[in-house]
Amino acid sequence: MTNEELLNIAVAGAKDAGRLLLERFQAPATGVSTKSSPTDLVSDADRDAEALLVEHLKAHRPNDGMLGEEGAGRASETGLRWVIDPLDGTVNYLYRIPVWAVSIALEDAGGPLLAVVYDPNRDETFTAIRGGGASMNDHAIHVSDEGDVSQALIATGFSYDPAIRSHQARVVTRVLDGARDIRRSGSAALDLTSIACGRVDGFYEAHLERWDRAAGELLATEAGALVTDLKPPIGDSIGVVAANPSLHGQLMALVTEN
Q1: Domain identity same for 112 and 23
Q2: What pTM did the predictor assign?
Q3: pLDDT tens across 113-138, in order?
Q4: Do 155 and 133 share a domain, yes or no?
Q5: Backbone φ, ψ for residue 202 (5° rounding)
Q6: Which of 106, 140, 174 is the last residue of a domain?
Q7: What pLDDT sits at residue 38?
Q8: DSSP assignment string, 76-143
Q9: CA-CA distance, 18 to 22, in Å (whole number)?
């Protein structure tokens, strides 16, 4: 099966999950519970969207591995693994803020091979295949060319762990002093697509899980960004810094300064 055919499978699954989520978006939430902290939420919408994606991928690729935010897991017999976040931006979703997405990546031994991030609210489908560039709704996209961090619009996100948030608060103060401004969308996947299409100039977040970043980091890379790891202040969930190559070093210096 070609990479394009694999990408088509991912796009179809992302759109099916997006339709399910949109149908429920304005309805009262059900099955809401907490995960890593009292503010880290999950709902039936997350679980059902992941179940839909799991069945879709199993039907087309029964021997591939899988890693999902809501518990999907399967060893790979093919050397390929699907990494899925069925609803990136759950808190936004539960507060009826229309900023959330479905994120799917396919990984091989070299890392992300292809990626889809689908934003149902704007009907925007971001796609990338390693080495083939990045697109939004089949139109090529590219990072901004801003090379001065003092003029850059920087996106970030915050952990649900209070100890990590305290560290992040100190970092964001430096970024506010050194950059044009900060944006916080509540979805790392959408932040990375915003890097890819030039809606923001840089992105950093010091605590991300694999499903948070797998698709978005390939999209940003294929759109021309330099994407590197960012060591978290606590734990082992490595974060990310992403920006065009001219800006990346300046942003990294801001977010890692002691």
Answers
A1: yes
A2: 0.93
A3: 999 999 999 999 999 999 999 999 99
A4: no
A5: -155, 160
A6: 140
A7: 62
A8: -SSS-EEEEEEEETHHHHHTT-S--EEEEEEEETTEEEEEEEEETTTTEEEEEETTS-EEETTEE---
A9: 6
